[in-house]
Amino acid sequence: MYAGKILCVNLTDLSFSILSPENSIYDKYIGGRGLCGHLLSTHLDSNPLIFCNGPLTGSGYQTTARCAVMHINPKTGGIFRSDFGGRFAAALKNEGYDGLMITGRAENPVSLVIDNGVRFGRVTDDFAVVEAGAHSGINWCSILSDGFFTTHRGGTGTMMHRMNLISIGIRPAAEPQKPDTSAYEDIERLINAAPSLTGRPGIGRFGTAALYDLAHARNILPNVFFNLPKPDAHTNACAIGETESVSCGSCTIACRKRKNGLRIPEYDGFAMLMSVGIPFDKIIETYNFCLKQGIDVITACHCIAQSGMDAEEFLHSIPEEFYNGADRFTVKGIELPAIAPDGALGAALGYATSPNGADWTTAMALTHEILRKPVPTDRYSVEGKAVINIAYENAKAAADSLPVCRYALFAVSLEEYAKASGTTAAHLADCGNEIFMNEISIIRRLGFGMETDRLPDGLLKPEQQKAFDSELKKYHRMRGLI
Amino acid sequence: MSLYDKYINKLKNQRLADKAVYVVTEDRVSVYGGDASTELMLAAQELKAYCLLFVRPAEPFMTALEEAAKDGEFAPNDSETRTFLHTVPVTDNFAEVPSALKRRKAVFVRRQGIITAAPFGAEQAFIFASSVLFSGFVKFFSDTGEAALLRNPCCTETALKLFDKYIENFHRSDLPELSKDIMRSDESILSAMAQAGRATVELGLVDSFFGNISVCKGKNIYISRTGSSLDELDGEIDVCPTDESACTGLTASSELASHRRIYEITDKRVILHAHPRFSVIMSMICAEKCENRGKCHYACTKKRYVGSSPIVPGEVGNGPRAMVNTLPPAMKDNDSVTVYGHGVFTVSANDFNDALRLLTETETAALKEYQSILLASQTSTRSPL
Ligand SMILES: [Zn+2]
Ligand SMILES: [Zn+2]
Fold this sequence. Notes:
The structure holds two protein chains of two kinds. Chain A is built from 21 helices and 16 strands. Chain A is α+β, with helices and mostly antiparallel strands. In chain A, helix 1 (23-29) packs across helix 2 (32-42) and helix 19 crosses helix 20. Chain B is α+β, with helices and mostly antiparallel strands. In chain B, helix 1 runs parallel beside helix 6 (122-149).
């Protein structure tokens, strides 16, 4: 369950120390994202970079290999919260730590190695590794984990560059056995019953880029807000052909895909690149170039659309005026992800209220508005979405803390994972509420007031905007923010 | 009409409930469907749940549920419960409702009814409640039937009484005439699907939220979406290319893979799938003491039938235990196949008339077989006067 220790590394004097949080902290914040939030909140002034695993890390339960990461967003001054797959989280747990908190700045570029102790030096081959993307200029540079996985948005790579931290390597843990429990079976049954995960057209077969066809059919691709021509329907995930599946670890969905040694884009990347007019046969190559460079594809495509520059030209030599990203379609300084707000109003509300800025991985409205799980909701109606979003924001915050992958939530609920971790869904949801509200209090301290909970002007039709504003007010009332 | 009223009406019109009340908590509390008891309001308050639904089941469901809940929390073996509900907690005391709902989606309060809490609102609460109704009913009748078959009968009198009540309220064999020549156009296919779906629900062969339906024409499969209601299919059909050149099937029924395979290996062009209660019950009644007992839902190897519909094991969706591996091969030589603890699939060549007829025939056979098991056990165990 828990190691009970956080490894704190100060790069300025290359020292380290151990923090042992009280049990009550674990009870309240679970681990993963929640523990990251607690550490960020209590060490905000030292601008730390924080990675945490959770109580289910290394348990062998489905989709529990995600590593949570949190820090002040170097692009916006707000909060950066994300997670990534690979061996990093389990390796950290195996070394005896629930979290890793890095502060300060090294005089010379260093790599941090955790291998039965802490040292600074070359990362041993085949260690679980997190490295900063190569582009050290942009303020939205991503990381690369195990040379393949990354976070949903960029910023952590920039943090590492600023700290003079090249990479972090940890001796990998053995792959956990799958638990022989009824909770495991219950979860597996739900994963297998979900067409979006394991169905023939599901993300387990085609990767999350499979969502492109639905987004195309529902007219919610980014070309809508960029006001660019709609990309072709036939150049989709299926057109890439059969690929090789890559598991984030302990995952029976394995939605990350590879072909000829290259990674297949995730939904947001695929939809963004298609929407700004990258030719289909260049998509994979372009995506992988960005991956290595740490170029966040969503932000990059906003810059391309805003500047009107040729995409290839932009990516190979990003003009300095875009080192802080684009500014036309942002919430709290973060560019909209690849779902147009006017065709998914619960998602739009989620963009406005996420402490992260425009982000669909906080309220997850895509799940019910587009994928119809656990039940379909009317995507054109914002009414009633406040209460659903709050429940989902809390559930997602708890899931990120266990940790459980966001895609598992397309089919599995907290009820099943609660059973796996010996608690109840209601308790996890309460923790999720604490975790979410803690992030709200962090962004308040960072200067983001409630007035920053808004969509960029002109994205919704006037009558949509009116209903949106009143539901947003309801959201704030129900959250106890007004 | 609000969504709440819509689902209250569904529960009542389908004769599933005598009473249904929603307590909805947003920034204020609203009640739909009549008065909410003080206990229900207290539970809503303690849970801070968005949407609470209380259902007092109509007969014969109420008594069946009471019987299924005799020994407390129960875990029925039907596929719906196994996949989504896991177990149904049982209590005598309203005060224990919040703690049960912190753990599970629905709770049964003896002599009162079902209470469910749903973060997604009216429809989800309705689905949870109708799942409990279905699974409690199926558990009582399958347990009783199996006990009778094993010559160890219990509750036979109650079962027979409820059975008669069920026949009186629910059994209909008057088949409506469905559209013919449906393959003319997209519109004729979609309207034929909507019509067949509605008829299936009206005949009581499936609760509205469950089941699925499809048509294969040329390079496309037209299939009901996941989470759609068979009696409301307008705008709820996905068109999936059989060459798998698009992922639009992401929102299709979770049985798309089975439907697709059936079209591949047979020359049938329409598929109808429902959960007729006694076909599901009969599929689970087995007197055999085989080594796969307890794994029947995915590993049964016995050759058994409901009427002339062969029973196959298989779980929902995909994966090694899924019905996609068992159902399509059985469909090669049979136009009606029953999936253990789950429901019946029927096919026909060009419109839904045969498929619907086969579905009712399978259910009628199940009812007859069930009744004869109960009657046989009754005569054999009654002591001679
Ligand atoms: Zn079914
Ligand atoms: Zn068996």
